[in-house]
Amino acid sequence: VDVIVDAAFADQDANVKQSACLLLGQCAEFLRPEIMEHHATILPLIIESMYNPLPRVHERACYAAVAYCEHLGCQILAPRLIHGEITLLLRIDEEEIAPHLDKMMTRLLELLSTSSSRDVQEMAISTISAVAASADRKILPYAAVRYHYVPGMEVG
After folding, report:
1. Of 11, 79, 98, 147, which residue is the least packed, with the fewest Cβ within 10 Å?
2. Helices (H), the chain
3. What is the pLDDT of residues 59-72, one digit of tens each?
């Protein structure tokens, strides 16, 4: 996995970076828990892709970040029978997102406030939500930020 990921993100072509982000998002959704073992390598690459000059790469990087945040640290606590179906109860470990939180939130807020693409802004909001859910109480320092660039949205 590391060889493919490193090669894809080292390539300067925007289409390759966009595809690499899409691949990582899909891996986070469908190759867990194995792919999550690589989060320390993968999350910085996703964040780096958020700095690419092209909005379509921003969108895919946000998608990959959402997928990782939603599945990062998921551990099966116990299977439960709910309405006739077996459901797995999961726990998110906020310690895994913590080292990346400052850089990720800084860039997401930049994208939200400066991107001319509404799609990028929407993905940034979705990503902030996923990061907040994963980070639990570690997101609190960012809660004081006023989202003055999103009409009707204010925190703090």
Report:
1. 79
2. 2-10, 14-30, 39-49, 55-71, 98-114, 118-135
3. 999 999 998 888 76
